[in-house]
């Protein structure tokens, strides 16, 4: 199965969830048009409080639909946009991508993967136990963050559900994803 966009979402306010939209427009160097997290500089409230001049490495949040399905089997009722993602995908191991991977979306949009979303307490305020469900342990005991990945927009364009996702890995050696 080719990787595909399942749903797109955006919110002009800093709400936890984002309403699903028929399409979103990605703006080069900024993020999702009309989304509260769009901009060259960081927009995440806790990061702004620490240093508002740092670059925005969290312009686009991607989550894999397979995670929502797994969590549904564990009693969590989650739909597209519920945990704040802009792009819900299927058929792509987002968490296995190296930093610097480029994803082509729609006719012209291109994003570059910057790192992992770090699960936070807002998940538990949305549904009790969700933060722990978004975390796991690797075989070596290391923490695995499963709340999706973050990216910056390299080339703008419109993205819609059903759009295929093209993947270009960066040159080796690959860098693992770290929280951004």
UniProtKB/TrEMBL annotation:
Pfam families, per the entry: MOSC
InterPro entries: MoCF_Sase_C (IPR005302), MOSC_domain (IPR052716), Pyrv_Knase-like_insert_dom_sf (IPR011037)
Molecular function terms, GO-annotated: catalytic activity; molybdenum ion binding; pyridoxal phosphate binding
Coiled-coil parts of chain: none
Domain MOSC: 19-168
PANTHER family: METAL-SULFUR CLUSTER BIOSYNTHESIS PROTEINS YUAD-RELATED (PTHR36930), MOSC DOMAIN-CONTAINING PROTEIN (PTHR36930:SF1)
Name of the protein this chain belongs to: MOSC domain-containing protein
């Amino acid at each position: 199965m080719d990787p595909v966009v399942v749903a797109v979402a955006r919110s002009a306010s800093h709400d936890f969830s984002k309403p699903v939209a028929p399409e979103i427009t990605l703006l080069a160097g900024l993020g999702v048009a009309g989304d509260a997290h769009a901009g060259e500089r960081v927009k995440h409230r806790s990061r702004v409080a620490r240093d508002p001049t740092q670059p925005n490495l969290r312009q686009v949040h991607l989550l894999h639909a397979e995670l929502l399905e797994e969590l549904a089997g564990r009693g969590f009722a989650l739909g597209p946009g519920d945990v704040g993602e802009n792009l819900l995908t299927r058929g792509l191991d987002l968490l296995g991508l190296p930093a610097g991977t480029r994803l082509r979306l729609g006719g012209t949009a291109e994003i570059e993967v910057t790192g992992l979303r770090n699960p936070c307490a807002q998940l538990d305020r949305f549904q009790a136990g969700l933060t722990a469900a978004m975390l796991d342990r690797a075989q070596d005991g290391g923490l695995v963050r499963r709340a999706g990945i973050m990216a910056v927009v390299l080339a703008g364009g419109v993205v819609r559900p059903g759009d295929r996702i093209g993947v270009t890995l960066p040159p080796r050696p690959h860098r693992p994803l770290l929280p951004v």
